[in-house]
Design a protein that fits this description.
- This protein is of the alpha+beta class and 109 residues long.
- It is built from three helices and six strands.
- The chain has helices at 5-15, 56-59, 89-104, and strands at residues 21-26, 29-34, 37-43, 46-50, 65-67, 78-81.
- A six-stranded antiparallel beta sheet has the order 1-2-3-4-6-5.
- A hairpin with a 2-residue loop joins strand 1 (21-26) and strand 2 (29-34).
- The chain is globular, with a radius of gyration of 12 Å.
Amino acid sequence: MTYDEGLAERIRERLGADPGITEKRMFGGIAFLHRGNMAVGVTGDDLMVRVGPDATAAALTRPGTRVFDMTGRPMRGWVVVAGEAVTEDDVLHEWIDEGHAFAAGLPPK
């Protein structure tokens, strides 16, 4: 499966100043990890965001979101945001910042 390299580049630009960020191929796309914990990623044309279990319900009320379910088993604390919902930088940055903040609050792996 390929992924939207343009979306990945926009994420790199937003997270580029953080030395704790690494990239890893995952879920048929690319993931951005903070100290080993996944924060956001790209699969196909969509954005994956780790929001945490307590923020999932609120995240799913936002435009273009759905439960992250790649194996028939939904992943708690994760959402997928449709690519067309993150065409504006300010919206994308909000999602990236939310995923990054959650991952940054976890102990390093």
